[in-house]
Structure formats: structure tokens, C-alpha cells
Specification:
single chain; alpha/beta; Uracil-DNA Glycosylase, subunit E; four-stranded parallel β-sheet; 9 helices; 4 strands; 40% helix
């Protein structure tokens, strides 16, 4: 692993995004401020902040937005990048200058990536609630509450205001509800946990196929 220091420049939308991500409801696990015991002595929170800022900055021109429910305990909780696990980082798929502490594989992230196939780099991935809603322990997930979704919507609104997305999709009902509140037209895709892996893959695949069928659209 090669670590390349990265700090977004003052005044950029990436810096503004990071400032918002560092402030989360107390009921959520904030992976951008928390470094977990398993990561010591590495600065896991710092890694995730640099990862998400770098990812967001590199997708600044993306015309397609795919919004999920929330980070999973095996996925963005460790990577910092929505719908992306550290296995994807370790494989080098994202580039060699992203950071990670432990390698974790998340089925939901893998399903979405499989559906995106070669279009992964053309789509900005995000979460309606960008912080991890842990269940009884950190190694678990739960559905975010309405208050938590409302907090996430503020970050999503910032992201939408700084992008020029021509096509938007929601993975599951929570993400769809958040986009509805912002009055963003979108397609609803099957969530892998509720609808199954295959349904999610096919839904994502059909969405990107439709979106990129005409190069003129993007």
C-alpha cells in the first residue's frame, strides 16, 4: 500500500463536504472521526477522510449519481467511500493512492460494483445517511431513523448543489425517500439486503445501460 497525503484545498466543495461529514448525530457511528481498536496504531479516521475527499474530488464531473441507504459495517465504515469496501481498495481498482487499515468485503458493495461493471468510474456513489447506523454493536447494521435520514439529507443536498447530475438512482426505499424530499427525479433500484443480490445487480446494470446507451445524454 502506498500512502499519498491528501488534503482538499480551502474553499473547494471537497473541503465543505468533509466539514459536514465530520458532524453526525450522536446516535450514529461516525467513521470519519472514529478510529477503531482493530486499526491501532494507524489513523483510520484520517484515512477515511482522505479517501472520501479524494474520491469525491475525482468524481466531480460525474453526470450520474447512485444513492444507497447508509454505510455498512463491512463497507464504507472501513473505506470511507460510499458503497465501496476495502477489498476494492486493496485490489487496486480505485488506484494505488487510496488508504486502508484492514481488508473487509461487503456483499452489498460488491453487488453494486458488479452491476456497474466498466461504468464504475463514471458514476458517483453516495449514501442518504453517510454515517454508519450500528445495531447492538459496531459489527452490525440497522435501518436509520427519520432524524438520522434528515441529517444525511443536509449532506446530500450539498452534494447535489455542487454537481450537475443528469441521471440519479436510489438503491432502496430509504435513499428514494431522501431524494423525494429534495424533489429529485430518480429511478428506484432493488436493495441487495431486502431484494437480494441478483435483483440488485440486474437493477443497477439495467440503469447504467439505459443511461449510457446514448453518449449524447452525458
Amino acid at each position: 500500500m502506498r500512502v499519498v497525503p491528501f488534503v482538499p484545498a480551502p474553499g473547494t466543495s471537497a473541503r465543505g463536504l468533509l466539514e459536514r461529514l465530520r458532524v453526525a448525530p450522536s446516535t450514529l457511528n461516525n467513521q470519519y472521526t472514529a478510529t477503531y481498536v482493530e486499526e491501532a496504531p494507524l489513523d483510520g479516521a484520517g484515512m477515511r477522510c482522505r479517501n472520501v475527499a479524494k474520491y469525491y474530488q475525482r468524481r466531480a464531473g460525474a453526470k450520474v449519481l447512485l444513492v444507497s441507504q447508509a454505510p455498512g459495517y463491512l463497507g464504507a465504515r472501513w473505506s470511507g467511500i460510499p458503497l465501496t469496501d476495502t477489498e476494492s481498495i486493496a485490489s487496486g481498482r480505485l488506484g494505488e493512492d487510496y488508504e486502508f487499515s484492514l481488508v473487509r468485503t461487503e456483499p452489498s458493495s460488491q453487488a453494486v460494483h458488479e452491476g456497474l461493471a466498466t461504468r464504475w468510474s463514471d458514476v458517483l456513489l453516495w449514501s442518504a445517511v453517510p454515517w454508519h447506523p450500528a445495531g447492538g454493536c459496531l459489527d452490525s447494521n440497522r435501518k436509520p431513523s427519520r432524524i438520522e435520514v434528515s441529517a444525511g439529507i443536509e449532506v446530500l443536498e450539498y452534494l447535489l448543489a455542487h454537481g450537475e447530475f443528469r441521471a440519479v438512482a436510489a438503491v432502496g426505499d430509504v435513499a428514494s425517500g431522501a431524494l423525494d424530499k429534495l424533489r429529485v427525479r430518480h429511478r428506484v433500484l432493488p436493495h441487495p439486503f431486502y431484494a437480494g443480490r441478483d435483483a440488485c445487480i440486474e437493477g443497477v446494470r439495467a440503469f447504467v445501460t439505459d443511461v449510457f446507451r446514448s453518449n449524447a445524454m452525458l
